[in-house]
Amino acid sequence: MATAIASPRRKAGPQTKNRAAAVITGLTLLLLAAGGALTGYLLATRAPEVAVGQVAALNGLSLTVDRTAWMFNDHSHEDDPSDSSAAAGLPKEVQQLAEARNLEIEEATTAQGQVFPMPASMMPDLPDEGHERLKVELTLQNTGRRSQPFGPGDFRLRSEAGGEWLPRAKSTFRADVLHAGQSVNGVFFFDVPQEEAQELFIVWQRGGSNIRIPVEAVDAGANYYLPK
Asked: Is 123 a residue whose pLDDT tops 50?
């Protein structure tokens, strides 16, 4: 009966080791090149960015975000409006109405800049507690020769963390059509949870193209006022 004799294993020579090192080096360089290409692609395809007050253009329309402002309400009121000194500035009939309905008193500002107290219950559209409201004022103009549709659906508020919010339905900004040479001023609002109100930007999107408009961080000293 024949006995099989195992042949001794050959140790990897210098050429084999060099070949393996070359393969590993090649794969590493390939991965680095792929990562660089992906980074370049992302940078190249990122939506262009304009600042508040600058003009942006997409598909026949130009946009200027004229102003953004954070609007606040601290949801804290006096329990007894009759003890509030603010009530003294109200017209007599409004004071009587407030007292009769046990309304709370809040200061409000007129279009002329005069401050007067106002029943808080007469301000029906405050942000939910724990939310901040961003007001956006903009101007759109049709710079082309064809009529162009527009509306709040063209806008989003996004965060670098991935959050996204649509404009509030209650605003003066409505979907419509701008004819050649026409322009329109609009105002709309976003409600954002306080913990997410940072690193935000408005996105204007038309025909598959986007433009980013960065939004300043929440200013703790801002005042709340009602949309008109």
From this structure: no
